[in-house]
Automatic annotation (TrEMBL):
GO terms for biological process: cleavage in ITS2 between 5.8S rRNA and LSU-rRNA of tricistronic rRNA transcript (SSU-rRNA, 5.8S rRNA, LSU-rRNA); deadenylation-independent decapping of nuclear-transcribed mRNA; NAD-cap decapping; nuclear polyadenylation-dependent rRNA catabolic process; positive regulation of termination of RNA polymerase II transcription; termination of RNA polymerase II transcription, poly(A)-coupled. Its cofactor is a divalent metal cation. Its EC number is 3.6.1.-. It catalyses: a 5'-end triphospho-ribonucleoside in mRNA + H2O = a 5'-end phospho-ribonucleoside in mRNA + diphosphate + H(+); a 5'-end NAD(+)-phospho-ribonucleoside in mRNA + H2O = a 5'-end phospho-ribonucleoside in mRNA + NAD(+) + H(+); a 5'-end (N(7)-methyl 5'-triphosphoguanosine)-ribonucleoside-ribonucleotide in mRNA + H2O = a (N(7)-methyl 5'-triphosphoguanosine)-nucleoside + a 5'-end phospho-ribonucleoside in mRNA + H(+). This is Decapping nuclease. GO terms for cellular component: Las1 complex; RNA polymerase II termination complex. InterPro entries: RAI1 (IPR013961), RAI1-like_fam (IPR039039). It comes from Talaromyces islandicus (Penicillium islandicum). Keywords: Hydrolase, Metal-binding, Nuclease, Nucleotide-binding, Nucleus, RNA-binding.
Amino acid sequence: MNSHAYNIQPLQRFSGSNAAIRRPKEIAYFSYDDEHNFRLDESSLRYYYPPQASQMPADLNEGFETFQKLDDSGDEHLDALLDTIVALEENTGSKCEADIITWRGMMTKIMAAPFDMLNGFEMNATYFQGSIFIEENNAYKNAQKEVQRNQRPQPGMPSQDVMAYWGYKFETLAVIADTWDATPREKIEGRVHEVVNNKAQYCSVVRTGIGKTKLVIGGEVDAIWDSKPTRKEDPINWVELKTTSELFNDKEKLKFERKLLKFWAQSFLLGVPRIIVGFRDRTGMLLRLEEIETHTIPGKVKRDGNGSWDGNVCINFTAAFLEWLKSVVNTDGTWRIRKREKSPVIEVFKLEESGHGDILSSKFKAWRTKQE
């Protein structure tokens, strides 16, 4: 088996000044509608508008019985991202060049790897026309979700499904479908009773770079603070929405600090400047909101926290790992990128000697081949 390994440790080799970073810039977008149908538009874009003060504390359990939950057990591969890239290339008449094309979730896992020894991941990759395409290994994702679902909740805590719902309920309470001035007051005040549906999503596709690696990343964006700028070069005021337990003690504070690693990496990768955190109690009552600027998070962790992670190390590690990955995944076939739980090593090994598996859609391959 054609196998390679990249050692995450020792981390000291990734300290020092940051690798070069190219600010993420949106080059395309797409939506999933309320039935999770793909749409090449921004119809699912949402606008941030916080819950009414008079409705706080808000019960995040409300409406759980009517939750319109997305079944994400099926394997969607990179299809939506690739369809969007095809449309972009048709529109611009030029190839969307990148060393790596993937979902934001995959890059988040890689970026967090130096300080997330506990969790593992599995991804599939293939090399085509000078780019590495990376997707999640769906079977691994589903197996992990099953393990989580079967975990016994802590005494006095609800099930994993209910706790996951809290996050979606918070999003429903904090967004509107149009700008504030175009939204009727009843609509804003009625969000507490709105049926929660996580099938609809707005996904931004950005061009970015870490170190010497050029990336095109697609990822869901929760909301926009105001509206998109008229000049495409200007950054977009995206907002990421998160819920977490109120920081009642030092244990909760450390847990939150570790959570901030993922919050930061996710937002950093797509160029989301602001994270709104909804703090809740153990029963799912939303108590307060806190606004955090993404770029300040690593400094706060270093200065005020326990120093459980280092943003510089994450960036430098990602730059070095991607550079190494380009030297490994550079021929036809399919590959697995794997980090086992509690392992300090990322393994990359070949699964199939030729072809691209199901990672690339036939539509995308046909389009790209036609352009050659």
